[in-house]
Design brief:
15% strand, 4-stranded mixed beta sheet, Aldehyde Oxidoreductase, domain 3, 19 helices, binds uracil, 443 residues, Transferase, Pyrimidine Nucleoside Phosphorylase, Chain A, domain 3
């Protein structure tokens, strides 16, 4: 006789282990309606306190993955590699990274998300490109990845539907912050893309989902270990997210800044993040023997314009206007731009990414509920980054708005997110750690 769901909840509550079959059955029965919300809620809380070991986390990942369809890309040659970021403010890396990696010969099938809360989403940014569609039938997705090297679409209802339902339950039962539940949630969606390898950008700090480094490291290590046990090549990089990445926060302006990277004129921190993640993707995809070689190849794809050409082809294949790559004035722009002047002279010491992310949402660039629309043109453009000298009255940022009154409503909040001091600060490194499968096994 199989144990009942009540017996399984009790076993986890008491610190026991569930088998892969038992976990698979609970997920199936929950999606099928014979395990109730209150029973799964109790199990989630038991997992929150007792945890899951790696075998249980792999089983949960696979059960959620197979609750829907897994994209098959048999016609796409090569080792397919994607990147996942745990999210931050100004994080537009995917838009320049995927074309660069594809230009170096590694296919990148990418299923991205929309912005929610203070972090933006790649789909909202891409949709600022005139005509661009992220709603592409699965067969076309596979064809575009094969022909162009990359394609970026939104999550469909068929991808890991169990995760969608379980995440909604976690959200209302105070169980989101469990590391094994986060690992299974992220990996189930990523593995549904039909990838062979995955580079994880685990963001750490004020503007990130993980605020402290120890927890971010624990999450990164668990993601690498579980992903590797699920048969994938996985590497994680821990990167700082105390200040926004790059200068643009918004949608259209972030897409423009990602395009700037492809033409060798991107801001230093965004370029560095792209080089670091791209190098790892090329190693996982077999296009580089070492991270140093991968970095050189990504830099060469910027210098030659090969990445920009892949982005043009991808935009064309996804029904957008490819001319927006060479001519970013074709991207929509805010009608009004209002400066945020510095109240004092000195050196910029700090920018609060969380506060600017929340302000951008309040301006209409993001959403607080999944069903809200975003305004592609509004946002914030940083004019100074930590370490820069600033004169009194010089702009710290520009506010991109539809009417001046909208800027005046947020200008004090934006100014307060910048800290100017007398001394030039020592800047912390962008990359805090790199965790591969050997590090993760030893942890
Ligand atoms: N992102 C996800 O996709 N799932 C989580 O559980 C947390 C962050």
């Amino acid at each position: 006789m199989q144990p009942t769901v009540v017996e399984l909840i009790a076993r986890k509550r008491d610190g026991g282990t569930l088998t892969a079959d038992e976990i698979g059955r609970i997920v199936r029965d929950y999606v099928g309606g014979t395990v109730a919300d209150y029973q799964l809620s109790a199990l989630l809380m038991a997992i929150f306190f007792r945890g899951l070991d790696d075998a249980e986390t792999v089983a949960l990942t696979e059960a959620m993955l197979h609750s829907g369809s897994v994209l098959a890309l048999p016609a796409v040659k090569g080792i397919k590699v994607d990147k996942h970021s745990t999210g931050g403010v100004g994080d537009k890396v995917s838009i320049c990274l995927a074309p660069l990696v594809a230009a170096c010969g590694v296919p990148v099938p990418m299923v991205s998300g929309r912005g929610l809360g203070h972090t933006g989403g790649t789909l909202d940014k891409l949709e600022a490109i005139p005509g661009f569609s992220t709603d592409i039938p699965t067969a076309d997705f596979a064809r575009i990845v094969g022909d162009v090297g990359t394609c970026m679409i939104g999550q469909t209802a068929e991808i890991a539907p169990a995760d969608k339902r379980i995440y909604a339950l976690r959200d209302v039962t105070a169980t989101v912050e469990s590391i094994p539940l986060i690992v299974a949630s992220i990996l189930s969606k990523k593995l549904a893309e039909g990838i062979d390898g995955l580079v994880l950008d685990v963001k750490v700090g004020r503007g990130a989902f993980m605020k402290d480094e120890a927890r971010a490291r624990a999450l990164a290590t668990a993601l690498v270990r579980v992903g590797t046990r699920a048969g994938k090549r996985v590497v994680a990089v821990l990167t700082r997210m105390d200040c926004p990445l790059g200068n643009a926060i918004g949608n259209s302006n972030e897409t423009r800044e990602a395009i700037d990277v492809l033409f060798g004129r991107g801001p230093a921190d965004l370029v560095e993040c792209t080089l670091v993640l791209g190098a790892e993707m090329l190693v996982l995809g077999g296009a580089a023997a070492t991270v140093a070689e991968g970095r050189d190849k990504i830099a060469a794809a910027i210098a030659s314009g090969a990445g920009a050409r892949v982005l043009e082809r991808m935009i064309e294949a996804q029904r957008g206007d490819p001319r927006a790559v060479a001519d970013t004035s074709l991207l929509p722009r805010a009608p009004r731009v209002v400066d945020v002047p510095s109240p004092t002279a000195g050196f910029l010491v700090d920018i609060d990414a969380l506060e600017l992310g929340l302000t951008a949402v309040a301006m209409g660039a993001g959403r607080t509920r999944a069903d809200q629309a975003v305004d592609p043109v509004v946002g914030i453009e940083l004019q100074k980054k930590p370490g820069d000298a600033v004169a009194a009255g010089e702009p710290l940022a520009k506010l991109l708005v539809r009417e001046d009154a909208h800027a005046h409503a947020v200008i004090d909040r934006v100014r307060a997110a910048f800290r100017v001091g007398a001394e030039r600060p020592t800047l912390p490194p962008l990359v805090l750690a790199r965790i591969d499968s050997r590090d993760a096994e030893g942890a």
